[in-house]
Amino acid sequence: MGIPEMGERRRLLKAVRLVDPAAGRDGTFDILIGGDRIARVGVDLPVDGAEVVELPAGVIVTPGLIDIHVHLREPGQEHKETIATGAAAAVAGGFTAVACMPNTTPVNDQAAVTQFILKRAAAARQARVYPIGAVSVGSNGEQLAEIGELRAAGCVALSDDGLPVATALLMRRAMEYASMFDLPIIDHCEDQSLKGQGVAHDGEVAGLLGLRGIPGAAESIMVERDISVAEMTGARYHVAHMSARQSLRAVRAGKARGVRVTCEVTPHHAVLNHEALAANGGYDTNCKMNPPLREEADRLAMIEGLRDGSVDAIATDHAPHHADEKALDFDQAPFGIVGLETAVPLCLDRLVHAGVIGLPRLVELLSVNPARILGVPGGTLAEGGPADLTLLAPGHQVTIDAARMVSKGRNTPFDGWSLTGAVAATVVGGRALFVGPAALGRPALWNEPDA
Amino acid sequence: MSTVTTLRHRHLLGIAELDPAEIELVLESAVAMKEVGTRPIKKVPTLRGRTIMNLFFESSTRTRMSFELAEKRLSADTLGMTTSGSSLSKGETLADTARTLEAMAPDMIVIRHHASGAAHHLARTCRASIINAGDGTHEHPTQALLDALTIRERKGRLAGLRVAIVGDLAHSRVLRSNALLLTKMGAEVIACGPATLVPPGLPRLGVRVTHAVDEAVEGADVVMMLRVQRERMEGLYLPSVREYFTLFGLTTRRLERAAPDAIVMHPGPMNRGVEIESAVADGPWSVILDQVANGVAVRMAVLYLLAEFRGEG
User: Fold this and answer.
1) What sign does the CA torsion over A272, A273, A274, A278 have?
2) For residue A444, is pLDDT > 80?
3) Which positions 197-256 of A are in contact with B (Cβ < 8 Å)?
4) Catalytic residue check, A331
5) What ipTM, to 2 d.p.?
6) Contact in structure between A95 and A67 (CB atoms under 8 Å)
7) Which helix (H) or strand (E) holds A337?
8) Which whole number is the average pLDDT over A89-96?
9) Rounded distance, CA A279 to CA A340, Å?
């Protein structure tokens, strides 16, 4: 599908259903796009020479979705994913922007790597890519990375993801230092001594399958440590891929005390529990990720947090791996599943249709709060702001088909799942980069001529 | 008498997949196979022309020899593979090793591996019948079957017996397989071990857990001791051999609390003076050597029944 260069091309989305909670909008509106920006949002806007776009019934427009936790694997692990394939998978999944973790090879602990990532993303011309820089050099937990340089090069947050920030002292210094640049620290919370050689949640299922366990406390201990340090330093702190109910309890308590803590939950931790490891004969490595799928009580706690507002964001922790790697036995296979292309169907089906949350809250979790946490544009359709839109088709039935995913990684436990809810189209900077089957009803949603 | 004449699946991956009727069938067949071991010529032609490969990725003397003997007594062509010098040390994956060997068309593959789920992994990739000879800390189904045969020989039944299993529960595939089998067959199972070595999930199997070995042994018809590896002393699980023996070791004194004609079992190899006192291991209660003898018969039964399998599973 060809993408023409954008001039001051003006498009008017006429009488579309818009859910933009940050702007207080939930209803039928006109959206005027000029070039790559939102020109106006209102009712009964004059056409004035703009190209009128009418959307199929059942399509809902939201501010572009932002996934603040993905692994794009480039540089160094291109057999799993590249920035181009990952950013394309993002738009196929409805995301107009992603933030990518620094555990590449080399680690993104220096400006040169950040600049490389941004260059590759620009060349791909798919979803926007916001690099997250490392907290420590090589994420080895010993020495601060050149955080000032990373910020100047374009990093929007810091993390040693894959590993926890090694010590309370390092977390303190990182928080103090990063505060100068208003960079949040995102921690992969996991006490390494409790984790040991664990490969699954430390519970009945792992116990009976003979798999070494990682207890929920391994996560919550670190969350509590980090919240204490954030309280001491006043810094901004974000819990990555929260999975344990004890962690959420600590986050709630921290928020109540005024600590600047936010947290994210993945769709898979809201949908699956550790029983998935015993299903279908057992030991499916597509159920192996870190943090692991936990008990039903943990899953329900995450659901409650999504509902009551104590969870700030949904992020996928998209972790593509090569098929050979996931074909190893359970102990040896790497942790992680892909998530960009399953997030929206899972959230629409298992959260919105299931009655856990409404669409406005989903937009908060997938757009408003992610933009706020990372301090990036988006989260709302603001006049003069980027024309990043996600078009959802909440009533459209999909069957997840891993073999046809855009991502290089096919490692998902949701292959074959039938879900109600799909992405109709993804618009980045005014360009419809993805138009899916759910947008059928018009030959080309956007009249983008083929190259 | 078993109500079935064939097994329902083409693999033996664990006791979890067997129902009581199938367990009964294996035990009955094993009794018949035992008789072969009493003849001057200990051979029957049942599996003549069949090829069985033994993939033992973990060192094992008794289980490997037991399987080999079972295979030879059934007249099968048997091939063994051990890890040293194998392609695995050259970086080949388990699945590739099995697929390569499978290109030589074995009928069955017996696998012992250090990773839980290894047998399931092979069953997904191979056409041959897979027999789990012990996968990580998950299951060791032929051990549980030979234990059941031994218990029934001495006690005449399984249902209603009180069985105590004592030792490093967390790392024991023998515990898991035995707990599954004994509860399926109506026995009462009490598991006992230090709190650092009790895995979650046992109550789900209907097993009672205690840390007091005296309580576990009280009135027990069968006391099954599990090996405690010395490495556990270093892994922060246990302070010392001495303390373990004092708190959990099976002594003649402790055994006085058991039922009058209680039997003592051990899957082997034993650590004398760690989990079991020599006087007990060598004493009249011990059926440990019977277990070994029954192992060959049970494995013959399993191989025979899997060779007979004609279904889809």
Assistant:
1) negative
2) no
3) 202-211, 213
4) no
5) 0.85
6) yes
7) none
8) 98
9) 24
